Amino acid sequence: xxxxxxxxxxxxxxxxxxxxxxxxxxxxxxxxxxxxxxxxxxxxxxxxxxxxxxxxxxxxxxxxxxxxxxxxxxxxxxxxxxxxxxxxxxxxxxxxxxxxxxxxxxxxxxxxxxxxxxxxxxxxxxxxxxxxxxxxxxxxxxxxxxxxxxxxxxxxxxxxxxxxxxxxxxxxxxxxxxxxxxxxxxxxxxxxxxxxxxxxxxxxxxxxxxxxxxxxxxxxxxxxxxxxxxxxxxxxxxxxxxxxxxxxxxxxxxxxxxxxxxxxxxxxxxxxxxxxxxxxxxxxxxxxxxxxxxxxxxxxxxxxxxxxxxxxxxxxxxxxxxxxxxxxxxxxxxxxxxxxxxxxxxxxxxxxxxxxxxxxxxxxxxxxxxxxxxxxxxxxxxxxxxxxxxxxxxxxxxxxxxxxxxxxxxxxxxxxxxxxxx
Length: 422
Known about the structure:
81% of the residues lie in helices and 0% in strands. It has 17 helices and no strands. Helix 4 runs antiparallel to helix 5 (111-139).
């Protein structure tokens, strides 16, 4: 038995609820500030340039750095203190946003500076996500992981509902740089809360590193390559991320083309999805999913297939919104099952790398899906794209749900480590 597993057996999780409360509070503050800035920047670029090319550059600046840094972030999350990485990424985001706010306040509001900061924020997100997913098993008992991940999936859409509304209200009464400064404050508070949280540090982060970064990266790739379960999951993820691209990227255009370009309709398209996600997260927190997380993933994907097809077939806007609302329900179910599954079946010392690889997969394949489906949307109707791509979602969903070879193994006992605290 590995030392990680032995450590987990003896690790004391007393007071874990307080740790989780501090951690989720920290993440919520960080998410809220980031979402405020995200919406404010996109609206600023849209209103000041009305240029699709500028929005494309902003999108690339938000995606590409995260893909690149993910190659490093997963290894870092296994080599260094995950809590410190989360704090460092929040600090990087806060400092870059503060500098942008100062420049704007001084009257220097060039677009290139915004793009640079978007890229830096993307790097911060790329560092943070694998560290967050790898960190939770260090502070949460194994049998509570699914519910904590579900709770996290409930909190996130609440802020995604509030952020665009508050950002719009702030833009109407104050300047853009003041929104930047709000994000600096929320990021600082997030860092303070995380600093208060006492958590074990994985054993490897406390020891002298005996291997190089590239040795660790190769070891992570080998670990995934030698696991038939992980290879199957990653193929499944790839199909899902690709086929969901039309819903993620093209539904606003679908609403504008079919139901009208009123702002309230575009806003409703986003809000009802997140509202459904909140209720889905509450339900998942109470339910906990099937005993097998594979079946939960498959079921969520098949439900999505049905509801997304309904989006494409709806010719009445109210009916379309009902389907979009219902389609939000499986989101936290899918996310909680996916995250918990990897946390349980992956050896703790590989958590960072495996979550890093998953992040690369999602941030690379979804834009590829958009690159594939986007041009087609100018040739055929988006309704047809939604129906066809969504119906195909049922295939990988059924594959995972009914695959008898994917019986959930005995979960890998989570990290740990010595009774040392930050």
